[in-house]
Amino acid sequence: MDRNQLLELTNKYGGPLYVYNTDTIKNQYNNITTAFSKVKNVKINYAVKALSNVNILKVFKQLGSGLDTVSIQEVQLGLLAGFDPKDIIYTPNGVSLKEIEDVAKLGVQINIDNLSILELFGQKHPKIPVCIRINPHIMAGGNSKISVGHIDSKFGISIHQVPHIKRVVENTGMHINGIHMHTGSDILDIDTFLMATEILFDVAKNFKNIEFIDFGSGFKVPYKEGDIQTNISDLGKKLSKRFNDFCKEYGKDLTLMFEPGKYLVSQSGYFLAKVNVIKQTTSTVFAGIDSGLNHLIRPMFYNAYHKIENISNPKGRERFYSIVGYICETDTFGSNRRINEIREEDVLCFYNAGAYCFSMASNYNSRYRPAEVMIHDGKDYLIRKRETFEDIIRNQDIVI
Asked: Which residues are annotated as a binding site?
Protein backbone atom coordinates (compact mmCIF):
# COMPACT_ATOMS: atom_id res chain seq x y z
CA MET A 1 0.00 0.00 0.00
CA ASP A 2 1.28 3.50 -0.79
CA ARG A 3 1.68 6.35 1.68
CA ASN A 4 -1.15 8.43 0.26
CA GLN A 5 -3.64 5.60 0.66
CA LEU A 6 -2.56 5.07 4.26
CA LEU A 7 -2.87 8.79 5.00
CA GLU A 8 -6.35 8.82 3.46
CA LEU A 9 -7.39 5.94 5.72
CA THR A 10 -6.04 7.79 8.77
CA ASN A 11 -8.03 10.88 7.81
CA LYS A 12 -11.15 8.78 7.21
CA TYR A 13 -11.07 6.56 10.29
CA GLY A 14 -8.85 8.49 12.71
CA GLY A 15 -5.91 7.11 14.62
CA PRO A 16 -4.27 5.14 15.99
CA LEU A 17 -5.34 2.65 13.36
CA TYR A 18 -4.55 -0.89 12.26
CA VAL A 19 -4.88 -1.60 8.53
CA TYR A 20 -4.74 -5.05 6.89
CA ASN A 21 -4.41 -5.71 3.17
CA THR A 22 -5.91 -9.09 2.25
CA ASP A 23 -4.02 -9.21 -1.06
CA THR A 24 -0.84 -9.77 0.93
CA ILE A 25 -2.52 -12.53 2.94
CA LYS A 26 -3.59 -14.28 -0.26
CA ASN A 27 -0.07 -14.04 -1.71
CA GLN A 28 1.50 -15.53 1.42
CA TYR A 29 -1.06 -18.33 1.52
CA ASN A 30 -0.39 -19.14 -2.13
CA ASN A 31 3.37 -19.12 -1.52
CA ILE A 32 3.15 -21.85 1.06
CA THR A 33 0.63 -24.00 -0.83
CA THR A 34 2.74 -23.73 -4.00
CA ALA A 35 5.88 -24.71 -2.10
CA PHE A 36 4.24 -27.98 -1.01
CA SER A 37 2.29 -28.70 -4.20
CA LYS A 38 4.17 -32.00 -4.68
CA VAL A 39 2.48 -33.43 -1.59
CA LYS A 40 -0.88 -35.09 -2.26
CA ASN A 41 -2.64 -33.95 0.92
CA VAL A 42 -1.66 -30.57 2.41
CA LYS A 43 -3.68 -28.65 5.00
CA ILE A 44 -2.83 -25.12 6.11
CA ASN A 45 -4.38 -24.18 9.45
CA TYR A 46 -4.11 -20.46 10.11
CA ALA A 47 -2.99 -19.71 13.70
CA VAL A 48 -5.86 -17.59 14.99
CA LYS A 49 -3.86 -16.10 17.86
CA ALA A 50 -1.83 -14.00 15.40
CA LEU A 51 -4.84 -11.91 14.32
CA SER A 52 -8.29 -13.03 15.37
CA ASN A 53 -10.72 -10.57 13.82
CA VAL A 54 -13.65 -12.58 12.44
CA ASN A 55 -13.39 -10.84 9.06
CA ILE A 56 -9.78 -11.99 8.70
CA LEU A 57 -10.88 -15.52 9.58
CA LYS A 58 -13.52 -15.34 6.86
CA VAL A 59 -10.79 -14.45 4.35
CA PHE A 60 -8.92 -17.60 5.30
CA LYS A 61 -12.09 -19.65 4.93
CA GLN A 62 -12.43 -18.31 1.37
CA LEU A 63 -8.86 -19.38 0.68
CA GLY A 64 -9.59 -22.95 1.79
CA SER A 65 -7.60 -22.75 5.02
CA GLY A 66 -8.35 -24.49 8.27
CA LEU A 67 -7.72 -22.97 11.70
CA ASP A 68 -5.23 -23.61 14.48
CA THR A 69 -6.70 -22.55 17.83
CA VAL A 70 -5.39 -22.43 21.40
CA SER A 71 -8.54 -21.62 23.38
CA ILE A 72 -12.23 -22.44 23.32
CA GLN A 73 -12.89 -18.79 22.52
CA GLU A 74 -10.77 -19.03 19.35
CA VAL A 75 -12.71 -22.16 18.41
CA GLN A 76 -15.96 -20.24 18.86
CA LEU A 77 -14.63 -17.40 16.68
CA GLY A 78 -13.81 -19.95 13.99
CA LEU A 79 -17.29 -21.42 14.12
CA LEU A 80 -18.77 -17.91 13.98
CA ALA A 81 -16.66 -17.27 10.85
CA GLY A 82 -18.30 -20.30 9.23
CA PHE A 83 -15.58 -22.95 9.56
CA ASP A 84 -16.60 -26.58 9.68
CA PRO A 85 -15.52 -28.06 13.05
CA LYS A 86 -13.46 -30.69 11.22
CA ASP A 87 -11.34 -27.89 9.77
CA ILE A 88 -10.32 -26.63 13.21
CA ILE A 89 -7.54 -28.07 15.37
CA TYR A 90 -7.38 -27.14 19.06
CA THR A 91 -3.92 -27.09 20.68
CA PRO A 92 -4.18 -25.66 24.19
CA ASN A 93 -1.54 -25.50 26.90
CA GLY A 94 -2.18 -25.75 30.60
CA VAL A 95 -5.98 -25.63 30.33
CA SER A 96 -8.44 -27.66 32.35
CA LEU A 97 -9.77 -31.04 31.29
CA LYS A 98 -13.23 -29.45 31.29
CA GLU A 99 -12.26 -26.92 28.59
CA ILE A 100 -10.85 -29.70 26.43
CA GLU A 101 -14.04 -31.72 26.89
CA ASP A 102 -16.18 -28.68 26.04
CA VAL A 103 -14.19 -28.17 22.84
CA ALA A 104 -14.46 -31.86 21.98
CA LYS A 105 -18.25 -31.54 22.14
CA LEU A 106 -17.99 -28.96 19.35
CA GLY A 107 -16.49 -31.60 17.06
CA VAL A 108 -13.03 -30.10 16.45
CA GLN A 109 -9.71 -31.95 16.34
CA ILE A 110 -8.19 -32.23 19.82
CA ASN A 111 -4.42 -31.92 20.27
CA ILE A 112 -3.05 -32.81 23.73
CA ASP A 113 0.37 -31.78 25.02
CA ASN A 114 0.79 -33.45 28.42
CA LEU A 115 0.63 -36.99 29.77
CA SER A 116 -1.72 -36.26 32.66
CA ILE A 117 -4.49 -34.82 30.48
CA LEU A 118 -3.86 -37.47 27.82
CA GLU A 119 -4.54 -40.22 30.34
CA LEU A 120 -7.59 -38.52 31.87
CA PHE A 121 -9.09 -37.74 28.47
CA GLY A 122 -8.37 -41.24 27.18
CA GLN A 123 -10.04 -42.85 30.18
CA LYS A 124 -13.20 -40.78 29.79
CA HIS A 125 -13.38 -40.41 25.99
CA PRO A 126 -11.45 -43.27 24.35
CA LYS A 127 -13.49 -43.02 21.13
CA ILE A 128 -12.61 -39.38 20.41
CA PRO A 129 -9.53 -39.20 18.12
CA VAL A 130 -6.64 -37.24 19.56
CA CYS A 131 -3.46 -35.70 18.17
CA ILE A 132 -0.35 -35.61 20.36
CA ARG A 133 1.96 -32.61 20.61
CA ILE A 134 5.58 -33.69 20.87
CA ASN A 135 8.42 -31.56 22.23
CA PRO A 136 11.37 -32.41 19.94
CA HIS A 137 13.93 -30.64 22.17
CA ILE A 138 15.06 -28.46 19.30
CA MET A 139 15.91 -24.80 19.91
CA ALA A 140 14.38 -22.70 17.15
CA GLY A 141 13.11 -19.14 17.21
CA GLY A 142 14.38 -15.60 17.15
CA ASN A 143 13.87 -14.95 20.88
CA SER A 144 13.74 -17.17 23.98
CA LYS A 145 10.14 -16.10 24.59
CA ILE A 146 9.01 -17.45 21.21
CA SER A 147 11.15 -20.62 21.19
CA VAL A 148 8.83 -23.37 22.38
CA GLY A 149 10.40 -26.67 21.31
CA HIS A 150 13.47 -26.78 23.59
CA ILE A 151 13.99 -29.06 26.58
CA ASP A 152 12.97 -26.46 29.18
CA SER A 153 9.78 -25.47 27.37
CA LYS A 154 6.37 -25.97 28.96
CA PHE A 155 4.97 -27.08 25.60
CA GLY A 156 4.52 -30.64 24.35
CA ILE A 157 5.33 -34.13 25.60
CA SER A 158 9.03 -34.93 25.57
CA ILE A 159 10.30 -37.29 22.87
CA HIS A 160 11.84 -39.24 25.76
CA GLN A 161 8.35 -39.90 27.10
CA VAL A 162 7.05 -41.70 24.01
CA PRO A 163 7.03 -45.04 25.90
CA HIS A 164 4.72 -43.40 28.47
CA ILE A 165 2.44 -42.18 25.67
CA LYS A 166 2.26 -45.70 24.24
CA ARG A 167 1.42 -47.10 27.66
CA VAL A 168 -1.44 -44.61 28.09
CA VAL A 169 -2.77 -45.42 24.62
CA GLU A 170 -2.63 -49.16 25.26
CA ASN A 171 -4.29 -48.84 28.69
CA THR A 172 -7.11 -46.59 27.52
CA GLY A 173 -7.66 -47.93 23.99
CA MET A 174 -7.74 -44.35 22.70
CA HIS A 175 -7.18 -43.52 19.03
CA ILE A 176 -4.18 -41.36 18.12
CA ASN A 177 -4.83 -39.85 14.69
CA GLY A 178 -2.08 -37.24 14.46
CA ILE A 179 1.39 -36.19 15.63
CA HIS A 180 2.29 -32.52 16.10
CA MET A 181 5.19 -30.24 16.95
CA HIS A 182 5.93 -26.51 17.01
CA THR A 183 9.54 -25.45 17.51
CA GLY A 184 8.92 -21.70 17.80
CA SER A 185 8.57 -18.50 15.83
CA ASP A 186 11.18 -16.96 13.52
CA ILE A 187 12.84 -20.12 12.22
CA LEU A 188 16.23 -19.00 10.95
CA ASP A 189 17.71 -22.32 9.87
CA ILE A 190 15.82 -24.73 7.60
CA ASP A 191 18.22 -27.56 8.44
CA THR A 192 17.40 -27.24 12.15
CA PHE A 193 13.70 -27.41 11.32
CA LEU A 194 14.25 -30.45 9.08
CA MET A 195 16.14 -32.14 11.91
CA ALA A 196 13.06 -31.67 14.09
CA THR A 197 10.84 -33.18 11.38
CA GLU A 198 13.00 -36.33 11.40
CA ILE A 199 12.32 -36.65 15.11
CA LEU A 200 8.61 -36.35 14.42
CA PHE A 201 8.76 -39.03 11.72
CA ASP A 202 10.44 -41.37 14.21
CA VAL A 203 7.69 -40.74 16.75
CA ALA A 204 4.97 -41.26 14.13
CA LYS A 205 6.25 -44.78 13.44
CA ASN A 206 5.08 -45.76 16.92
CA PHE A 207 1.43 -45.16 16.03
CA LYS A 208 -0.15 -47.25 13.29
CA ASN A 209 -3.35 -45.35 12.58
CA ILE A 210 -2.37 -41.70 12.26
CA GLU A 211 -3.94 -39.61 9.51
CA PHE A 212 -1.78 -36.48 9.61
CA ILE A 213 1.50 -35.01 10.80
CA ASP A 214 1.41 -31.36 11.87
CA PHE A 215 4.80 -29.64 11.63
CA GLY A 216 3.70 -26.41 13.29
CA SER A 217 5.17 -23.29 11.77
CA GLY A 218 7.26 -20.33 12.88
CA PHE A 219 8.36 -19.32 9.38
CA LYS A 220 10.28 -16.06 9.56
CA VAL A 221 9.28 -12.98 7.58
CA PRO A 222 11.60 -10.02 6.86
CA TYR A 223 11.29 -6.99 9.15
CA LYS A 224 13.90 -4.79 7.52
CA GLU A 225 15.78 -4.47 4.25
CA GLY A 226 18.17 -7.41 3.78
CA ASP A 227 16.60 -9.31 6.69
CA ILE A 228 16.79 -13.10 6.85
CA GLN A 229 13.56 -14.95 6.09
CA THR A 230 12.58 -18.59 5.92
CA ASN A 231 13.08 -19.91 2.40
CA ILE A 232 9.66 -21.52 1.95
CA SER A 233 10.44 -22.72 -1.56
CA ASP A 234 13.60 -24.54 -0.45
CA LEU A 235 11.86 -25.98 2.60
CA GLY A 236 8.99 -27.13 0.37
CA LYS A 237 11.32 -29.03 -1.96
CA LYS A 238 13.24 -30.76 0.83
CA LEU A 239 10.38 -31.56 3.18
CA SER A 240 7.94 -32.59 0.42
CA LYS A 241 10.32 -35.28 -0.82
CA ARG A 242 11.01 -36.54 2.69
CA PHE A 243 7.31 -36.52 3.59
CA ASN A 244 6.33 -38.43 0.46
CA ASP A 245 9.05 -41.00 1.15
CA PHE A 246 7.79 -41.39 4.72
CA CYS A 247 4.23 -41.95 3.49
CA LYS A 248 5.51 -44.83 1.37
CA GLU A 249 7.32 -46.27 4.40
CA TYR A 250 4.23 -45.82 6.56
CA GLY A 251 2.00 -47.47 3.98
CA LYS A 252 -0.56 -44.75 3.26
CA ASP A 253 -0.92 -41.14 2.19
CA LEU A 254 -0.96 -38.92 5.24
CA THR A 255 -1.91 -35.24 5.38
CA LEU A 256 0.91 -32.75 5.85
CA MET A 257 -0.23 -29.90 8.08
CA PHE A 258 1.19 -26.51 8.97
CA GLU A 259 -0.16 -23.83 11.30
CA PRO A 260 1.35 -20.51 10.15
CA GLY A 261 0.20 -17.28 11.73
CA LYS A 262 2.87 -14.60 11.45
CA TYR A 263 3.95 -15.80 8.01
CA LEU A 264 0.45 -15.27 6.65
CA VAL A 265 -0.57 -11.95 8.21
CA SER A 266 2.47 -10.04 9.49
CA GLN A 267 3.31 -8.22 6.27
CA SER A 268 -0.35 -7.48 5.55
CA GLY A 269 -0.59 -5.12 8.52
CA TYR A 270 0.19 -1.43 9.05
CA PHE A 271 -0.12 0.52 12.28
CA LEU A 272 -0.69 4.25 11.92
CA ALA A 273 -0.15 6.73 14.76
CA LYS A 274 0.07 10.52 15.00
CA VAL A 275 2.99 12.38 16.56
CA ASN A 276 1.92 14.32 19.65
CA VAL A 277 5.20 15.95 20.59
CA ILE A 278 8.85 16.33 19.61
CA LYS A 279 10.98 16.42 22.75
CA GLN A 280 14.70 17.10 22.65
CA THR A 281 16.79 16.19 25.70
CA THR A 282 20.52 16.51 26.27
CA SER A 283 21.14 13.28 24.38
CA THR A 284 18.04 12.25 22.44
CA VAL A 285 15.29 13.57 20.21
CA PHE A 286 12.04 11.84 21.12
CA ALA A 287 8.99 11.62 18.89
CA GLY A 288 6.06 10.89 21.20
CA ILE A 289 3.02 9.39 19.49
CA ASP A 290 -0.65 8.94 20.40
CA SER A 291 -0.13 5.27 21.19
CA GLY A 292 1.98 3.04 23.38
CA LEU A 293 2.75 -0.52 24.42
CA ASN A 294 -0.98 -0.88 25.09
CA HIS A 295 -1.49 -0.96 21.32
CA LEU A 296 1.78 -2.51 20.12
CA ILE A 297 3.69 -4.38 22.82
CA ARG A 298 6.05 -6.46 20.67
CA PRO A 299 9.06 -4.11 20.79
CA MET A 300 8.96 -3.93 24.60
CA PHE A 301 7.89 -7.55 25.10
CA TYR A 302 10.55 -9.33 23.05
CA ASN A 303 12.63 -6.67 21.34
CA ALA A 304 10.73 -7.03 18.06
CA TYR A 305 11.75 -4.71 15.25
CA HIS A 306 9.17 -2.77 13.25
CA LYS A 307 10.22 -0.52 10.41
CA ILE A 308 8.90 3.00 11.07
CA GLU A 309 8.35 5.63 8.38
CA ASN A 310 7.10 9.21 8.44
CA ILE A 311 4.47 8.99 5.73
CA SER A 312 3.51 12.66 6.17
CA ASN A 313 6.96 13.94 5.23
CA PRO A 314 8.62 11.27 3.06
CA LYS A 315 11.05 13.70 1.45
CA GLY A 316 12.12 15.48 4.61
CA ARG A 317 15.73 15.58 5.71
CA GLU A 318 16.66 12.41 7.59
CA ARG A 319 17.36 12.78 11.29
CA PHE A 320 17.68 10.42 14.25
CA TYR A 321 14.73 9.88 16.58
CA SER A 322 13.62 7.59 19.36
CA ILE A 323 9.94 6.78 18.86
CA VAL A 324 8.10 6.49 22.17
CA GLY A 325 4.55 6.14 23.41
CA TYR A 326 2.25 7.88 25.86
CA ILE A 327 2.09 5.13 28.48
CA CYS A 328 3.29 5.93 32.01
CA GLU A 329 6.09 3.39 31.69
CA THR A 330 8.99 3.03 29.30
CA ASP A 331 7.42 2.10 25.97
CA THR A 332 9.95 2.58 23.22
CA PHE A 333 9.07 1.48 19.70
CA GLY A 334 12.47 2.21 18.20
CA SER A 335 15.67 3.84 19.45
CA ASN A 336 17.90 6.15 17.44
CA ARG A 337 16.08 5.47 14.17
CA ARG A 338 17.00 7.34 11.00
CA ILE A 339 13.68 8.79 9.79
CA ASN A 340 12.63 11.67 7.54
CA GLU A 341 12.18 14.78 9.67
CA ILE A 342 9.29 14.33 12.07
CA ARG A 343 6.99 17.19 12.99
CA GLU A 344 4.16 17.32 15.48
CA GLU A 345 0.92 16.05 13.88
CA ASP A 346 2.83 13.90 11.35
CA VAL A 347 1.59 10.32 10.87
CA LEU A 348 4.06 7.48 11.39
CA CYS A 349 3.58 4.06 9.84
CA PHE A 350 4.75 0.87 11.56
CA TYR A 351 5.21 -2.04 9.16
CA ASN A 352 4.73 -5.77 9.79
CA ALA A 353 1.85 -4.94 12.10
CA GLY A 354 -0.46 -7.79 11.14
CA ALA A 355 0.66 -10.49 13.57
CA TYR A 356 0.58 -10.36 17.38
CA CYS A 357 -0.07 -6.62 17.39
CA PHE A 358 -3.75 -5.85 17.84
CA SER A 359 -4.28 -9.34 19.25
CA MET A 360 -1.99 -8.43 22.17
CA ALA A 361 -3.42 -4.93 22.68
CA SER A 362 -4.84 -3.94 26.07
CA ASN A 363 -6.54 -1.13 27.97
CA TYR A 364 -3.46 -0.40 30.07
CA ASN A 365 -3.62 3.14 31.52
CA SER A 366 -7.36 2.89 30.74
CA ARG A 367 -6.64 3.80 27.13
CA TYR A 368 -8.93 2.70 24.32
CA ARG A 369 -7.89 0.00 21.90
CA PRO A 370 -7.63 1.26 18.29
CA ALA A 371 -9.86 0.64 15.32
CA GLU A 372 -9.14 -1.97 12.61
CA VAL A 373 -9.64 -1.54 8.86
CA MET A 374 -9.43 -4.24 6.18
CA ILE A 375 -8.61 -3.59 2.52
CA HIS A 376 -10.36 -6.35 0.61
CA ASP A 377 -10.77 -6.51 -3.18
CA GLY A 378 -9.73 -2.87 -3.40
CA LYS A 379 -12.27 -1.54 -0.88
CA ASP A 380 -11.72 -0.43 2.72
CA TYR A 381 -13.95 -1.72 5.51
CA LEU A 382 -14.06 -0.80 9.19
CA ILE A 383 -13.88 -4.23 10.84
CA ARG A 384 -13.53 -3.10 14.47
CA LYS A 385 -14.80 0.17 15.90
CA ARG A 386 -12.56 2.31 18.07
CA GLU A 387 -13.34 1.77 21.74
CA THR A 388 -15.08 4.36 23.89
CA PHE A 389 -15.27 5.09 27.62
CA GLU A 390 -18.38 2.93 27.77
CA ASP A 391 -16.28 -0.03 26.66
CA ILE A 392 -13.81 0.61 29.48
CA ILE A 393 -16.50 0.47 32.18
CA ARG A 394 -18.89 -1.98 30.49
CA ASN A 395 -18.22 -4.90 32.85
CA GLN A 396 -17.43 -2.91 35.99
CA ASP A 397 -20.00 -2.98 38.78
CA ILE A 398 -19.89 0.18 40.91
CA VAL A 399 -20.74 -1.05 44.41
CA ILE A 400 -19.84 1.83 46.73
From this structure: 218, 298, 302, 329, 356
271 touches 296 (CB < 8 A): yes
Alpha-carbon gap, residue 359 to 295, rounded angstroms: 9
Q: Tell me: the pLDDT tens digits for 37-94?
A: 999 999 999 999 999 999 999 999 999 999 999 999 999 999 999 999 999 999 999 9
Share of the chain above pLDDT 90, in %: 87
Cα separation, 364 vs 327, whole angstroms: 8
Domain range enclosing 67: 22-262
Point out the residues that are catalytic: 328
Rounded distance between C-alpha atoms, residue 146 and residue 5, angstroms: 33
Confidence label for 154 from pLDDT (cuts 50, 70 and 90): confident
**Could you report how far apart the first and last alpha carbons of the chain are, in Å?**
51
CATH of the domain at 11: 2.40.37.10
* One domain for residues 272 and 335: yes
Helix (H) or strand (E) holding 119: helix 115-124
User: Is the residue at 400 inside a domain?
Assistant: no
Binding-site members for substrate are: 298, 302, 329, 356
